[in-house]
Known about the structure:
five-stranded mixed β-sheet; alpha+beta; Ctag/Cox11 (Pfam 04442); 10 strands; 19% helix; flat; 33% strand
Amino acid sequence: MAQNTIDPGKQRSNRLIAAICLAFFGGMVGMAYAAVPLYAMFCQITGYGGTTQRVEQYSDRVLDREITVRFDANVAGGLPWEFKPTERSMTMKIGETAQAHYTSTNMFSVPTAGRATFNVTPEMAGAYFNKVECFCFTDTTLKPGETIDMPVVFFVDPDIVDVPELKNLTTITLSYTFFPIEAEKPVAAAPQAGEGVIETTTDDNLGG
């Protein structure tokens, strides 16, 4: 009987195809993991999606033109907080540094924790809304009934007037949403000697 033989050239071809497929799959996985931080960096630099800018210094230029900033507050389900701005809007000159305040109150009978995200509308204005101080992306824990003040220091970049789509903009809305943070479950301690030990009786200890 004739034995089936595999062409060595075909074997090499199959191995090459398998290697290419494996490399492609690995590349796709790597791109998936890199996509989140790269997307966040892209939003931070460009203001895409209403992402505001974080800066270390105040504006060195103030225009003789006013703009109104509205403040919005939201709480996601599962977080028993009352979260609100102390004032609904503020009007300042473009380039002028301003400070707004939000307050958060824990309405529950046990400590609860939350973390805030934010965005600006219109979204294109996010690249020109600069925050010097902010409570966003910081884990905050409140005791039962506790209320805290949460300031935000910001200014609107004067370069916003050079953007054709934004040159006539008169109002920007800054919106925060607090989400609950699950508390870590305590690790059970090992039982101490003589504690929590249940003695059992074996047949060796039974008489008869």
